[in-house]
Amino acid sequence: MEKYAVVARILELAPIEGADRIETATVLGWKVVTQKHLYKVGDLVVMIFPDTLVPKKFLDGAYQGDEKVRLKTVKLKGQYSAGLLLPMSIVGSSFSEGDEVSELLGIEKWIAPAAASIAGDALGNFPTGIISKTDEFNARSEPNALNEARLYPLVDYEFVATLKCDGSSGTFIAKDGQFRVCSRNLELKESEGNVFWQVAKKYSLHEKLLKLGDNIALQGEVCGPGIQGNPMKLTELTFFAFLMKDIKRDKWLSWDTLKAVCREHQIPHVEELKVFKFTESSPTLEELQDMANNAKYDHGRTNAEGIVIRPMSPVRSLVLQKPWWSLKVMNQPYDMKKG
Question: All domains of the chain, ordered by start, with CATH?
Answer without folding.
Answer: 5-109 (2.40.50), 116-337 (3.30.470.30)
